[in-house]
Automatic annotation (TrEMBL):
The keyword Signal does not apply. It comes from Algoriphagus oliviformis. PANTHER family: DTDP-4-DEHYDRORHAMNOSE REDUCTASE, METHIONINE ADENOSYLTRANSFERASE 2 SUBUNIT BETA. The keyword Oxidoreductase applies. Keywords: NADP, Oxidoreductase. CDD domains: dTDP_HR_like_SDR_e. Signal peptide: none annotated. It catalyses: dTDP-beta-L-rhamnose + NADP(+) = dTDP-4-dehydro-beta-L-rhamnose + NADPH + H(+). One of its GO terms (molecular function) is dTDP-4-dehydrorhamnose reductase activity. This is dTDP-4-dehydrorhamnose reductase. It comes from the Bacteria. Belongs to the dTDP-4-dehydrorhamnose reductase family. Its EC number is 1.1.1.133. Residues 3-283 form the RmlD-like substrate binding domain.
Amino acid sequence: MNKILVTGASGQLGSEIRHLSSQYPFEFIFTDVAELDITDEQAVRHFFETNKPNAVVNCAAYTAVDRAEEDIETADKINHLAVKYLAQAAQEYGAKLVHVSTDYVFDGNGHRPYDELATPDPQSVYGDTKLKGERAIIELGIADSAIVRTSWVYSTFGNNFVKTMRRLGAERSELNVVADQVGTPTYARDLAAFILDMLPDFASPKTELFHFSNEGVCSWYDFALAVMEMSGLDCKVKPIPSEKYPTPAKRPFYSVMSKEKAKAQLGVEIGHWRDALQRCIGEM
């Protein structure tokens, strides 16, 4: 395996894969919509026929969670149908496939970390379309493919919660942040390394599900406090309940995911979210 197609390459995860790419003995093909419109089935087939990738990492996603409640068709095209087209092409041309999914496939009403066997029950259009994308892959039964669910992704690239908190923390003396939604932040660089490390030796007769985030548990309020502290910003963060910050899409109240399967089967070591955040902020 030497040629890897990375879709959604200008997003947070795709950018982190590009950043790490020189450390891996692969030939990378980085694409975004300008180079490959993955919602165009014929374009996907033609790209595979022309470039013959040995593996595909699909980082592309419609991630505007609130806008998806209105823009259902576009969210479905990118999060579901495009995934189906990539999976079909990967199967036809014998390529490995790693697809990135989300904690939003769960209802968020649990109180123990969700493992890969937990029953999905999305509460938003975003979560629903991402689950449909997962099922499109699973129904094809592609060998050597994996779906990696992650949560609360941030990076030195793109727009994300960490950058927003740093910007607002520099502009304001006080911020209100939701304190009753609990999960785990994921540094996109750690997720990128996890995916690139698993690719060479990963083999399975069927599609495997894995959960990956950094270790530990926090609320958005805790996360914001840590960003201010590590950034040296003197901005007071006040905890508020979700009802004080209504959004069009329902957020999971609890979306901590168990990483035991990834650790047991792939031998991965996962760092704590605070350590990962410190590394990221150190680069900003």
